[in-house]
Amino acid sequence: MKIAIIGCGWVGKKLAEYLTGKGHHVIATTTSPDKIQELKTVAAEVHLLDFSKDSGSQFLNDAEVAIFSMPISRISWFKGFEEMQNSFPKTILFSSTGIYPQENRIFTEKDTMNLRPDIAAAEKIVRNKYPQTNILRFGGLMGGERSLQNFFRNKEIRNPEKRVNYIHYEDILAIVELLINSDKASGIYNIVAPEHPSMGEVLNKEEVNNGDSHDSAQRIISSELLIQEFNYTFLHPDPKFFNP
Question: Is the pLDDT of residue 206 over 80?
Fold first, then answer.
């Protein structure tokens, strides 16, 4: 299958490597000439594509799947994206759970009030152009070199009791592959590990009983819809045990 990953950042590069390893023909795009050689190690094709400039996208014409992995909150790509002439049988957008307000309660995909305007606008513009798009709202990206231990190596954590909404990149890869092979379209899914330990627990990897992991007294992003619709079992359900 020919799959385009439009905007190969940290997750996009890992996804390109994963899908290439599965035998797919991966087309990777970047806005930075400096990243071309690096991406050529994980993708069959690498192209410069910057929606904020006059960039042609004819090389995407044969792609069977387009995965939009642009920085979701940067509005500079809106106009160029609207001018795209490509059509795709299947499309996926990488979004963020940052779209939900900073309120202490449980959020599901049914929550549509007080969404962050820039992220909501980005989701809308992609859906308007490609109504079949499945939107994946990622929690905090973790795994490999990305860990709280690294982030707070020389910093003091101010609120260790705060519950986390994290996702391991290996689950992202598996979920994207699941959607590529699925007939479902136009869905919105929160992609967050189902366990929500406190930041202090993640840093210390201690089994501390702070109550239900879906504590409504904290801001919790629920991934129950994904679990139910796809019968998905997370590879890394508990951020306390993500790879350091």
Answer: no
Give 108-135 pLDDT, tens digit per residue: 999 999 999 999 999 999 999 999 999 9
> Where are the chain's structural domains?
2-143+166-197+220-238
What's the topology of domain 2-143+166-197+220-238?
Rossmann fold (3.40.50)
Residue of 123, 96, 100, 124 whose CA lies nearest to 110: 100
Do residues 68 and 134 lie in contact, with contact meaning Cβ atoms separated by under 8 Å? no
The pTM is what?
0.94
Tokens 């690294």 appear where? Answer: 150
